[in-house]
Amino acid sequence: VYAGYAGLYKLVGSTWTLQNTTSLGTGNVELIEIDPSNVNNMFVVNGTQLYKSTNKGINFTLVYTATASISGLTVHSTDSNIIYITTSGTSGQAMKSTNGGTTFTNFSTGLPSIGKNIIVHQGRNTDNPLYLGTDLGVFYRDDSMTSWQPFDINLPNVSVTDLEVNLEDAKLVAATYG
Fewer beta carbons under 10 A from the terminal one: N or C of the chain? Predict the structure, then answer.
């Protein structure tokens, strides 16, 4: 179990111990993502900065600085080079990296000018489905599409702050406010 404070902490037994030995900027770590296909790779976000570790969170390197705070982060389920992020604010973007997080390209076509809160990748699917939680519900995109589409099957227009894909039950679970 990991937690982000002024650094990356790991629960060892019943004690929280500082895991990282290199700086993660100023302020608190806001997002933590472990690469599902290589547990040695970890990513953390501190504001606009994306850090990467290849040794389970001991040493980190700043790999990317976004133009706005990073609000969501996910790693492709089988390809460690593909990273997805969202940036905050109404002008925030959905972005994709194909080189392990060093550079990103915007792929926000079809998304309205609303807050983008979280992005998740669905594994075990050759179309690489992505779900994006926004201030007005969930949007969907996969490799067969050129733009994002609303994914609102019986979901009201509410702020979605967290998403989890349950692969075994083929369900998408959304955390909302209200």
Answer: C
Q: If you search the block for the tokens 């990317």, which residue do you land on? A: 64
Query: Could you tell me if 33 and 74 are in contact, meaning their C-beta atoms sit under 8 angstroms apart?
Result: yes
Token pair listed for 73: 């982060």
Total number of residues shown for the chain: 178
Q: In what order do the strands lie in the sheet with 83-87?
A: 70-75, 83-87, 94-97, 105-106
What is the spatial distance between Cα 155 and Cα 58, in angstroms, rounded to a whole number?
A: 40
| C-alpha span between 28 and 24 (Å, rounded) | 8
Q: Are strands 8-12 and 2-4 parallel, antiparallel or unpaired?
A: antiparallel
Beta bridge partners of 12: 15
Structure tokens that stand for 112 in this block: 């309205």
DSSP string, 30-77: -EEEE-TT-TT-EEEEETTEEEEESSTTSS-EEEEE-SS-EEEEEE-S
Q: Full-prediction pTM beyond 0.85?
A: yes
Q: Which of 82, 76, 33, 26 is nearest to 53 (CA)?
A: 33
